[in-house]
Amino acid sequence: MRRARLVPTADAGQASVLVVGLVAVAAALTVALGHVAGGAVDDAAAQHAADAAALAGAASGAGEAERVAAANGAVLVSVSSVGGDVIVTVEVHGRRATARASTSP
Question: What is the pTM of this model?
């Protein structure tokens, strides 16, 4: 009958180091994914605000475009008229989006 060794071998405890390393990598990937997802949400919010502000600007002018942009959590960066179109640029958390709306039917 063989008895279990009571003296630790040279590789004792290496699994613990490996598990800690894997947990650290998983945590880093989770944080990175959170930043990417947050950026995508900000991009979508900026585009939504730009679309709404452009439609409001085409219907009621630049003042209404600014009010609608603010109501959607955005800052109106620029508004201009080109022909029968209104072009609006807004910013949400550092993300910019531009939209165009036509004043003609």
Answer: 0.69
- Sign of the alpha-carbon dihedral angle for 56, 57, 60, 62: positive
Listed by start position, the domains of the chain span 15-102
Does the structural domain 15-102 have CATH classification 3.30.360? no
In whole angstroms, give the CA distance from residue 40 to residue 84: 31
Q: What is the SS3 assignment for 31? A: helix
Structure confidence at residue 98 (pLDDT): 97
Nearest to 76, CA basis, from 60, 57, 59: 57
Work out the pLDDT band at 105, boundaries 50, 70, 90.
confident
